[in-house]
Structures are given as C-alpha cells and as structure tokens.
Amino acid sequence: xxxxxxxxxxxxxxxxxxxxxxxxxxxxxxxxxxxxxxxxxxxxxxxxxxxxxxxxxxxxxxxxxxxxxxxxxxxxxxxxxxxxxxxxxxxxxxxxxxxxxxxxxxxxxxxxxxxxxxxxxxxxxxxxxxxxxxxxxxxxxxxxxxxxxxxxxxxxxxxxxxxxxxxxxxxxxxxxxxxxxxxxxxxxxxxxxxxxxxxxxxxxxxxxxxxxxxxxxxxxxxxxxxxxxxxxxxxxxxxxxxxxxxxxxxxxxxxxxxxxxxxxxxxxxxxxxxxxxxxxxxxxxxxxxxxxxxxxxxxxxxxxxxxxxxxxxxxxxxxxxxxxxxxxxxxxxxxxxx
Amino acid sequence: xxxxxxxxxxxxxxxxxxxxxxxxxxxxxxxxxxxxxxxxxxxxxxxxxxxxxxxxxxxxxxxxxxxxxxxxxxxxxxxxxxxxxxxxxxxxxxxxxxxxxxxxxxxxxxxxxxxxxxxxxxxxxxxxxxxxxxxxxxxxxxxxxxxxxxxxxxxxxxxxxxxxxxxxxxxxxxxxxxxxxxxxxxxxxxxxxxxxxxxxxxxxxxxxxxxxxxxxxxxxxxxxxxxxxxxxxxxxxxxxxxxxxxxxxxxxxxxxxxxxxxxxxxxxxxxxxxxxxxxxxxxxxxxxxxxxxxxxxxxxxxxxxxxxxxxxxxxxxxxxxxxxxxxxxxxxxxxxxx
DNA sequence: TTGTACGCGTTATCAA
DNA sequence: TTGATAACGCGTACAA
Lengths: 338, 338
Description:
2 copies of one chain form a homodimer. By secondary structure, chain A is an alpha/beta fold. The first copy, chain A, is 47% helix and 19% strand. A 6-stranded parallel beta sheet of chain A has the order 2-1-3-4-5-11, with helices on both faces. In chain A, strands 7-6-8-9-10-12 form a 6-stranded mixed beta sheet, sandwiched between helices. In chain A, helix 5 (74-89) links the parallel strand 1 (62-67) and strand 2. In chain A, helix 1 crosses helix 2 (15-22) and helix 10 packs across helix 11 (256-264). The mean pLDDT of chain A is 94. The structure holds a DNA duplex.
C-alpha cells in the first residue's frame, strides 16, 4: 500500500514535502516536485480516505441543501435519502442543513442560495433552469464550493455533478409501455406540469420520439396543470370530455391525484389506461383504486442519498465524483412491486 | 462528538481502559466497567469508522467469494458490482478473492468453502439450500467468520445477512403484468428452471397467489428446463405445440434464449407474450427481436456491491448490518429502459 | 525551500 | 487491573 510517507522515503524527502507537492501547496523546488510527482504516479498513489476523514474532522464540513420541495411529496423520499446519508456521515463531523421553498420563484431561490453561500462547503440544489441561477452557482464553484444539482439539472453551469433521472427516457418508456398495453393503435391524452420546466418538456419529447415508431398513435391534446391538483382535475375533466375516445392518459408530472379523480368520474368501462410518474402516497392511493395502473419510478431515495454521498466524498475524503452525471433508470412499477 | 478519549476523561480513566471495556477484552474491574459502559450509553458513543479503518489496516481483512456462477450470465453483473466495491475498499487494505464453480453440486461447494475457511475473515456465497452447507456455514460463524448469502438464501443457517431479491414477489409481479397486458382472461404456459431450487418455486408460488384474483387465468403446464438452453428450447417447443392457445409465456429462471428460439419458430401472429427474468445479453438480444417484451430485473450489480459493502463495514468499520435481509425490488423493464 | 511535530480516533503492545 | 505509548495516513502549524 502506497502512502505519502513511503513516497517520501523513496524520494529521500520528508512526508511534509510530499504533502506540499501532492496537494499543490507550492513552496517546493521544481526538481523535487517532479521526482515526487513521478514516483506518486509510478506507484499509483491514492490518498487513504480514512486518513483524510480523520484529519478533516477539524473542518466540520457543511453541506447546504436548497430544495423547491415544499408541497411536493416526491421530495419527501429525496429528503429521507439525504437525511439517512447525513446521519451515516455525522460521525465524520459532517453537518447538513436543509432549506426548502415552495414553487419555482427564481428570486427566492437566489436569495436562499446567497444566504447560505458564506458558510457552506457544498451545496445540493434542485435548480430552477435560469441563467441568473446558473451564474450564481458558477460563483459558488469559483469560491470552491462543491455544487451538486439534484433531480433536475441546469444549463450553462459548471456544477461538479448532477444526480437525477433521464427525463427523455422517461417519456420514451411511457410510450413503449402504452404500446404494450394498448397495442399499435391508440388515442393518447396528455396532462403535463408546465412547459416552462425543462424536465417536463424532455419527457414529452421522449414520448413523441418513441411515437415515431407508432404511426397509429395519436396525441389528441396536451394540457398543463402547473403541478396543481385542482387545476389538474379541471383540465383532465375537460380533456376527457372533449375526447371521450382517449384510451391512454399520460401524466407527465405532478397533479396525479387531481387527474385521477377526473378519471374516477368516468364509468369504469370508459376509463383510459393511466401512466404517471412517482409513487407518492396520493398516487399509490389511486393505484389501489385502480385508476393508475403503472407508474415510472425515479429512485428518489437513492437520488437524495447519492447527492449527499458525492458531496461527502469530496469534502471529507477528497474524492471527486467518478461521473459528472449520476442518472438512475426509470423503473416501471405496478402496485405489486412498489 | 463523543470519543473514547472523552469518555476516559469523564470517567477518570485512560482510553486504554475504555477500549478494553467497549470491546469486551476483559481485564477490567467491574465497577469501572459499569461506569464506562454507563457513560458510553449516556453520551451515545459510536466508534468512528475512520479511526477503526486506519487501525484495521494491519489486519489485511480478506473476503472470500464463493459463487455458482460459471455459465450463468446473471452473475456477471453481480461480480462486476463486487469488483467495483472491492476496488473502492482496496485502499483500506481489504482483499477479495473469487472462487467460482459451475452448477449446483453440494459436495463441490462444500469443498470450495472448506478450502477458504482457514484464511477468510468473511465469506460471500450463493449457497445451495442443503442442510450440510447450512451446517458448514454455521461453523464459519462460530469461528467468527462473517457470512453473507447473496442472490439466494439458505434455511437453518445463522448467516449475518442475506442480499438478494424477493422471489415470491417476482412471481406476483409477473402475474400482475400479464393481467395488464392480456386482460382478465389468459392462458399461461410456464417454463421453470428446477423444482429443486427454492427461488424458482417461490416465484411460482407468488405467481399462483396473484392468480387467485384472476379466476379466468389458466396455467396449462409447467415445464422444467434445468436452466439449460437446449432443454429449454425443446420443452418450450413441446409446450407451445401441445397448447397452441397459450397467450402468455412465463419464464421463471434461466434458459430464456432457448425458450425464445422456440417462440421464434412460431409465426409472429401466434406468439405468446413473454415475461422473463434478468437482462443478460442473450435475453436482451431476444428483446431486440421482439420475442421477450418484458423482463423483471433483480439489480444484480447492486446485489454484488452491497454484499461486499456489508462485509467491509463489518470487518473494517466494525459496523454490523442494520438489516439482516437486504432485498431489492423486482423492477419491470422493457427494451426502452434497460 | 524543506523538515518536524502534533492531532484526528482507534487498536495493540508493553510496562507497571 | 490499569496506563502509557506507538502506530495507522493525512493535514497543518511552525521551525529551520
């Protein structure tokens, strides 16, 4: 096993010098630096996380979580994953603070981020896809704050890591599932969250992409519900009334409960086959009622856990993430394997 | 943060004494022992894994993996998960050795296990469900070797931990999926691996259990293929010939490729809907050909990774597994979300 | 520019 | 029955 001490011995220098070279602290002559660097590469030096963790305890590293999670049950599981990870790492001196907000107000998220900036070593955030937020997060990174985006990503931002699911593939998978259930010919109604939200659009795109293989699939309409249950109920009711021949209803985002209630208003034999995302309690309730038969599952617990894992590994063990994008599969789940 | 040192100070003894008490090494007077134990509980002492890991490096802990994996592509992913975990923990001085065999010969597995017994600190094994093997593994445990069963469990054995999937639920889920695709009425043919293998039987039981909700579902026959592709081809061919009205074919275990080839022999419009387990390359090939539409996925990579994780946590960090059974969900996957 | 010394929390050894 | 001390690998403050 190769350690700094061993490298120092082999190069005829002290361990302190090896530390300076390997951690780029300067104040080392070029030739010794070269020798040490060479030796380290030769022997495949990897810092020992246990040693790092032990030494890092003085820092009391702090992760700030900033989530637009209030009123969105999906994030309950994400938060549970984060909290279990945080507990696991508490012994290493890691602290995690949670800051939640409701909805997607850019100014509010910016304010929240700014308020944690001064004292955070890492930030885990589900960012609103706005240039102003991207710019702010880039400032975080310049000031050496580790940035993880969770559940949804943001453009033009140098965040070290994204943890989430593949939205486009979610749409593709939903469409493929409809084909299996409904056959080659189907009439599809869609209720999406918002066309302002990247992930929702990507799911729609994925769905349409997969539909290119299905010339007899028809989308009759795409309604927006703004992730609001009442709006969802109303637009779904309208959708089902305007197009009584819909046999597949695709719920792209939130508002599953409201949409399902609208479906329940129909006589059982007229109800479309419904595919939705995420197994939040209200959706599970509707699965028990039989209105929602299939959901696509995004591994929310693992998303939360992994995002803290990555920040922890960086802050405490000094390990940078192996992949910049940690994307979990969309899983198809029925009531039976929830 | 509460450490041994702090406990020692508060109790007016040295950390050495605290260590002796907390690790039950004896040679401590009853009253100091009681005081220290009390103080530790009071403060909620948890050993620091980093400290333990650092100190444990001298031990060079060794995990022996014993798998009936040869010729079974499912275990390729399990092994990949194990190897990535092993690499991750290499820096802590952990060593993992792999011992594979073909098929389920009890004597052979016993011989393999006995051969690693002398030098292993932990064993990860997919045990054959035999009393003789259970007995041997119990000996391991008595000699303080940590035992993890992976993928399938064994009865009458005190193994610390099982990592795998829920076989019964796999059957339930498969049946529910057939209902979604075929409706309330269906004629099902089943090809299982072996009635000698517990997991295969449990899947069948789960399937039948779920069928109790479906009075118009009929199982016409259950054939065994012994997980052999050629046998699988032959029995499936016979099954499909004897019962040309089969509209659902349930492949409980291995031999998916052979069975699919038999399905391919039918004209396309006569082919049943096929549900199988695991996304091994030959099965994926058949999914591309369209014979297998749906698979149930057992998270093999995670099974492998987790089993090493647990042994590592025990050996290096001294953490016993939080749960005795680590069961991953059966996931429904199509070609689109493989 | 380089080396030394200490601390992080644990285990292990040796001395008392 | 106890305590002191060294070691594990790393970070860092300070001395040379």
